[in-house]
Design brief:
homodimer; mainly alpha; 11 helices; 75% helix; disordered N terminus; DNA-binding
Chain lengths: 212, 212
DNA sequence: TAAAATTTTTGAACACTGTTTAAAATTTTA
DNA sequence: TAAAATTTTAAACAGTGTTCAAAAATTTTA
């Protein structure tokens, strides 16, 4: 029946409204500083209303997950212009860093916070599809490199995992402020970015040196 | 006067008692699940009493910081038995992983959480001494490797930063559960450890391949 | 159109959280 | 022992996520 469909659409509309409010508040003031009551206030509903559309706060978190991954994949779109595999891999690393620094809270949501991930496991579905796709892009790029003679003697999956770990480590140490504490460069932001770049370039140098 | 000294000792005693209670609760049930009221209950004082000994919760966190670093440095003591620099570096990586996995909450406290770090910056003193010392051990090991011909063409500081980032990335992706989600090995714990080890060994392989 | 049934929304409460403050209990000093 | 100083606490504040019965709004039925 068309009636129930229309109703469903309306329900979906409010659901999306909640998500949009949550997203704007999260990116505006961070996760810790955003409450269910804040979101409710923004959409001008009572806090309890939200629970008719989302199971709990983690459910909202997880819904933002998907959008976050889409944003990450958007950042990767520049890679289509880079035909050389190793150059593409290098550009991918830079894009990943860019994404992590310019969307710190979203990055945290995707790769640091445990709650939304637990929600995936709890709520039946193994829906981390977009995340897996992002990893697949890395894996394929690594394998494309290998076909051109790079990374001889390396298992593509293990190497991809390592590359991801390295990028993740760099990004989280950077955004959490731990990099700044260990480095002598404690003041200016430019120095930190530079430091991070130097570490990244060292990694690229490592990968490059693996040639036969 | 000896009286005030005794008083100070008593005060210090209670301060340490608070810290011990906090530590046991943190490691027992995690950070998020431990409140000031829990700690107060454990030492059989009122919650407000704690604020006579610690400025706030982050102050307690930061005090555990120091102990955490001492524990990490203890894990590094096995390195004294490894004279060959590169073998020492390899052992250091393994020790770091061991520490991160067997002390997940403490690791989080030291290298993931932002609040205790902000406390360091806020409360004047630049006291991340023990942390810097841990990094110095890495730096010195890297430089010792270089003196034996390893890592030619690399800046020791940049490379140390990279190594730290890689290890940190591996450990956090592992403990947060993100590694398990991307990998096909979603069930058994042994597989995850194995996967992590493979990524680690790939990294070692990379470093080894840097020989002249 | 009026009544019944269903859905949507909400106020109020529950059990928490970190933190502050003024008052009470204790200890030290004179 | 009385006064002063210190330590400890009860109570409150403003907030959190979440639940649930009741109210309001909407839809369906007669």
């Amino acid at each position: 029946m068309g009636v129930t469909e229309r109703k469903e659409r309306h329900k979906e509309g409010l659901k999306k409204e909640i998500l949009a409010a949550a997203k704007s508040l999260f990116t505006e003031r961070g996760f810790e500083a955003t409450s269910i009551r804040n979101i409710a206030e923004k959409i001008e509903y009572s806090p309890a209303a939200i629970y008719s559309y989302y199971k709990d706060k983690n459910d909202i978190m997880y819904s933002l997950h998907q959008e976050g991954f889409k944003l990450l994949l958007n950042h990767f779109q520049v890679l289509n212009n880079v035909s050389h595999p190793f150059e593409r891999l290098k550009a991918m690393g830079r894009a990943y860093i860019q994404f992590a620094i310019h969307n710190q809270d979203i990055y945290k949501l995707l790769f640091v916070m445990e709650e939304p991930l637990a929600h995936v496991a709890a709520c039946g579905g193994e829906n981390w599809d977009e995340g897996d796709r992002a990893f697949d892009i890395l894996l394929q790029t690594v394998e494309a490199c290998q076909q051109q003679g790079y990374f001889k003697g390396c298992d593509s999956k293990n190497l991809s995992l390592l590359i991801w770990s390295t990028m993740h480590g760099l990004c989280t140490l950077r955004t959490s402020g731990h990099l700044g504490h260990v480095a002598a460069a404690k003041d200016s932001q430019t120095d930190l970015d530079q430091l991070m770049n130097l570490a990244y370039e060292t990694f690229i140098y490592l990968l490059e040196s693996l040639d036969p």
